[in-house]
């Protein structure tokens, strides 16, 4: 039997109202604690968003600072070398010495040679280790008043090309055996330097003979070696503050330690700073001076010395001349073992009685001992001239004392030559 109450609208309404009432009263049961959570989560999200925005802003600031710093770093790294290179290209043309030109000594290698004056004998001036012909700028015009005199830059120094590795292919030669005869000699050693000088004077420019060879430091070794190999071309040899092959054996090798432990690394550092363009900045700001420091030299020489000091190629050759010095010493020793020095060629040694103030006394004493051995043992019949108050800078601080002995030899040869002709 079906009850009608179930279909009573009033019952349905009550049930609806009861259900609705339960829904309304639901928050009072404790289940409504979940409703405040969305508000707290929103605060957390706002806080997190705020912190995220701050982090993003910090990241952007860091990135912009980093980019700006990198720009400056790149500017410092790239700009000085670029400006130095462009300056070297411009200066290379207008700072070139007015006297002289480049001569091809063979195989495409060109060397600078500058000559003044006329007549015989021809005086050849050879610079100290790692230096250019500018050191003779005060000596050259004075000697030129009485005879022909020439200066030159050794391979790689100043305006001369670095020595080339030369190869020639002839019919029947194997691919692995194409070395030119000239490559038998190591670059920047005595034998190669002598060969370069002989080609420059006798083949490329054909300078009149005989020669009076005037060499300072390494230039003195070249003068002695040249005379050993080409004695018929040389009348006199003048050694100014000469570098001697037994230098490294003096006083427990103090010079060897200094040469390879300090001198070469300092030139390598100069080469690096020149390549980076920092040497030019140092010269401009006065933190560095050019090597020929004398008020007597011309402004042109000063500018040219600054130019070569900023040139990585020049400094690379300076490093190489010092680096291969043991080979050079060995070669000059071998020459003296194979053949005595020609008796018909006179030798004059010019030294000063002042030590180099920039060097420790131990190095100055060892240098003096090696020169004493040169005078007493290697060339016992030589003439020794001591310049009072002069040190190793005598070529541009006491140049007159160097010029006078050379001119006496010139006049002596001229007088003898005229008497012989009569």
From TrEMBL:
Domain of life of the organism encoding this protein: Eukaryota
Chain intervals with Basic and acidic residues compositional bias: 1-41
UniProt domain AB hydrolase-1: residue ranges: 132-256
Keyword field contains Transmembrane: yes
Annotated signal peptide: none
Chain segments carrying region Disordered: 1-56
Keywords: Membrane, Transmembrane, Transmembrane helix
Matching Pfam families: Abhydrolase_1
Transmembrane segment boundaries: 70-88
Alphabetical list of SUPFAM superfamilies matching this protein: alpha/beta-Hydrolases
Keyword flag Membrane: yes
Family to which the UniProt record says this protein belongs: Belongs to the peptidase S33 family. ABHD4/ABHD5 subfamily.
UniProt-recorded name of the protein: Uncharacterized protein LOC106162942
The species this protein was found in: Lingula anatina
């Amino acid at each position: 039997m079906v009850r009608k109450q179930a279909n009573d609208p009033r019952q349905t309404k009550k049930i609806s109202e009861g259900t609705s009432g339960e829904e309304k009263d639901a928050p009072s049961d404790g289940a409504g604690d979940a409703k405040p959570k969305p508000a707290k989560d929103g605060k957390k999200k706002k806080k997190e968003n705020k912190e995220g925005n701050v982090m993003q802003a910090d990241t952007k600031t860091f990135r912009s600072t980093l980019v700006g710093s990198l720009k400056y770093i790149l500017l410092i790294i790239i700009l000085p070398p670029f400006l130095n290179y462009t300056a070297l290209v411009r200066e290379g043309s207008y700072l070139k010495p007015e006297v002289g030109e480049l001569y091809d000594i063979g195989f495409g290698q060109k060397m600078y040679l500058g000559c003044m004056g006329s007549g015989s004998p021809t005086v050849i001036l050879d610079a100290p280790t790692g230096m250019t012909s500018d050191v003779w700028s005060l000596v050259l015009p004075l000697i030129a008043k009485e005879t022909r005199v020439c200066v030159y830059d050794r391979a790689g120094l100043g305006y001369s090309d670095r020595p080339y590795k030369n190869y020639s292919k002839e019919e029947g030669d194997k691919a692995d055996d194409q070395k030119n005869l000239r490559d038998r000699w190591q670059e920047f050693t005595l034998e190669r330097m002598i060969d370069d000088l002989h080609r420059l004077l006798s083949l490329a420019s054909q300078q009149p003979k005989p020669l009076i060879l005037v060499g300072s430091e390494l230039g003195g070794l070249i003068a002695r070696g040249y005379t050993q190999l080409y004695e018929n071309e040389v009348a006199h040899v003048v050694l100014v503050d000469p570098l001697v092959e037994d230098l490294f054996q003096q006083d427990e090798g103090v010079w060897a330690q200094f040469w390879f432990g300090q001198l070469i690394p300092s030139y390598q550092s100069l080469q690096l700073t020149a390549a980076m363009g920092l040497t030019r900045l140092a010269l401009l700001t006065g933190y560095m001076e050019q090597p020929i420091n004398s008020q007597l030299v011309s402004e042109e020489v000063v500018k040219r010395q600054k130019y070569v000091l900023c040139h990585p190629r020049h400094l690379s050759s300076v490093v190489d001349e010092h680096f291969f010095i043991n080979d050079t010493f060995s070669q000059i020793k071998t020459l003296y073992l194979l053949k005595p020095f020609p008796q018909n060629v006179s030798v004059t040694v010019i030294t000063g009685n002042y030590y180099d103030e920039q060097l420790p006394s131990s190095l100055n004493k060892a240098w003096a001992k090696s020169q004493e051995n040169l005078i007493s043992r290697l060339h016992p019949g030589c003439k020794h001239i001591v310049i009072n108050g002069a040190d190793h800078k005598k070529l541009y601080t006491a140049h007159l004392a160097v010029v006078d002995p050379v001119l006496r030899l010139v006049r002596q040869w001229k007088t003898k030559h005229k008497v012989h002709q009569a």
